[in-house]
Design goal:
- The chain is mainly β and 121 residues long.
- It is built from no helices and eleven strands.
- It is elongated, with a radius of gyration of 14 Å.
Length: 121
């Protein structure tokens, strides 16, 4: 069974930084795309950033220039460096993996359980 485990969330003051990590575990041959999503209270889940297996990145306009996504493909891990945090960044951040190839499945989509980021003003 494939699992994604996020860590690194917490409480930070506006202007501060946090680094989120996502580790995939289980029998995994490969993962195509990985990404970070977030869901603020009362709002829909939204894309934050994605990182393809080919190394291409994509960011939501609201985080461009402040957040950096990175990925260690052989280790099936992903990171999100968040700088210049704003209260509007407060949300539960979820790790997502698409195109997960396992011994049993050719293309799974997996979500992590989420990690809470709270930015105080």
């Amino acid at each position: 069974q494939v699992q994604l485990v996020e860590s690194g969330g917490g409480l930070v003051q506006a202007g501060g930084s946090l680094r989120l990590s996502c580790a995939a575990s289980g029998s995994i041959f490969s993962i195509n795309n990985m990404g970070w999503y977030r869901q603020a209270p009362g709002k829909q889940r939204e894309l934050v950033a994605t990182y393809t297996s080919g190394g291409r990145t994509n960011y939501a306009d609201s985080v461009k220039g402040r957040f950096t996504i990175s990925r260690d493909v052989p280790k099936n891990t992903m990171y999100l460096q968040m700088n210049s945090l704003k209260p509007d960044d407060t949300a539960v951040y979820y790790c997502n993996a698409q195109g997960v190839h396992t011994p049993r499945y050719r293309s799974l989509e997996v979500w992590g359980q989420g990690t809470l980021v709270t930015v105080s003003s």
